[in-house]
Amino acid sequence: MNRKELEPDSSPQAAFGARIRRLRETRGWKQEDLAERTGYSSTHISAVETGRKMPTLRFSRSADRAFGIEETVDTFEQEWRKIRHGSLLEGFPQYVGYEARAVELRLYNIGIIPGLLQTPEYARVLADSAVRRGTITQEQADERVSFLAERQAVLVRPRPPMLFVIMDESCVRRPVGGPDVMDAQLARLIEFAEMPNTLLQIAPYEIGERRTFDLPVNLLTLPDRSVVCYAESQTQGHLDRESPSVLPMLTAYHQLQAEALSQAASVAMIRQLRKGTS
Length: 278
Hints:
By secondary structure, the protein is of the alpha/beta class. It is built from twelve helices and six strands. α4 runs antiparallel to α5 and α7 packs antiparallel against α8 (138-154).
């Protein structure tokens, strides 16, 4: 049987596979032995070890149990999460942890519909566009889309958080993915506005210099009423929990709410735009 030499430094995925093989061989197990202990086939084990198959969360947890390292600081689950978040901006994985616990979310976006409100088709167009530009791989694009779906699902719970969303007018006027994708996305925004725990507003172009933010901003109120701020540029994200710097951002958000269109006027604008996409 030919044994493929591994190159763990070539990628995080390759390092994951090389570590699986190393721990397996240290215990004197064949691939069949590990397969039996994880519930996967030996062919699957081989594919993960050689980097031909991306590990999943379920596989990572199964490997942790098989090797008895679930309670350690260096689990395969943690390694998987590092791989999974490799295409995300700095600070964003930590932000998502807070997002899942928040009781109030205040979002502001420019140019692109906020991720939590995106349809799968709209999200896919953006991810595939990044692949064509060469900024991420197809595998990372797939992960982005599935990760976004997980984030959206977390917010559907018995006691959902309040979601306040302000979008620059450019978000709804910028065509993404063609008429059908855009029409479905605008319809999704109208559905969002009808939910009992949401408020949707558009910041129109005419407010000019009264627009208080020049970059996307997310503000989360946690169960203890503390506030977390996450802001990002094209290449970097920044998470802040310090009250002296976060509270002015909250004030600026409230000022922007006062300048933005009401929800009724915002929905009317979206409905009018839909007539132009159908």
